[in-house]
Amino acid sequence: MRVGVFDSGVGGLSVVKSLLEHKLFEEIIYFGDTARVPYGVKDQNTIIRYSLEALEFFKNFDIDLLITACNTVSAYALDEMRLHSEYDVIGVVEPGVLALKNAIADTDASILILGTKATVKSGAYEKGLNELGYNNLNAKATGLLVPIVEEGLYEGEVLESVLHHYFGDLNTTPDAIILGCTHFPLISGAIERYFEGKSTLIHSGEAIVEYLEKHYDFTTRYEHTECKFFASENPEGLRRTAKIWLGETL
Ligand code: DGL
Fold this sequence. Notes:
Layout: E1 2-7, H1 13-21, E2 27-32, H2 44-58, E3 65-68, H3 71-76, H4 78-83, E4 88-90, H5 93-103, E5 111-115, H6 117-122, H7 124-131, E6 137-141, H8 145-150, H9 157-167, E7 176-180, H10 188-194, E8 200-203, H11 204-215, E9 226-231, H12 235-246
Parallel strand pairs: 1-2, 1-3, 2-9, 3-4, 5-6, 5-7, 7-8
Helix pairs in contact: 1-11, 5-7, 5-11
The structure holds D-glutamic acid.
D-glutamic acid binds next to helix 3.
């Protein structure tokens, strides 16, 4: 099976990492819209327009399935993308909600949703969680963490102070945290430490693997996956980041 992975930039590589670890695909075609990242501060119409333009890119390839690794795209543009494509288009919000349900049975559990401004504004995670009976929710737009990850600051003083900036006012430690942004799995260690290991973290990459394995028939596991990385700007930079982030899985 050949899969396309779309993200606003390099962040979706965190989802690719999970796909590679589980050896699900014969080929992965990745497209990051690095010329126009970040999407998380843009409005709905722009996010939808950019996402439909990304579909044009994937017309150059014979893919069986498209994963939108970007939470912001998943929150706003899935319906339109599905209308305009012949293959399945899967986002990360629904898998994230289902992964939360599988991890936390208690519907009174306190859940902290982290994402970009746009993702939080969409209320997409809250809607999905409410439908499953989870109502003890708190969503925080933590967009500053995106450039911090892009800078490679996966730990240290700058990251610690931004975590404090966003979480310092929380009265209680959340039972679970949804990492509702492609970049946040890269700093999951620091987030986990900040909450002293007491919160269960939900990672889009792992969530999507769980979802795919449930909904598709993966009889073959691929020891080697052919990966092709494309970007709307500085593809070399994206390929370099892919080597660093994906390391041995590549
Ligand atoms: N990929 C985006 C997301 O997961 C984060 C970066 C951006 O704002 O474009 O929401």
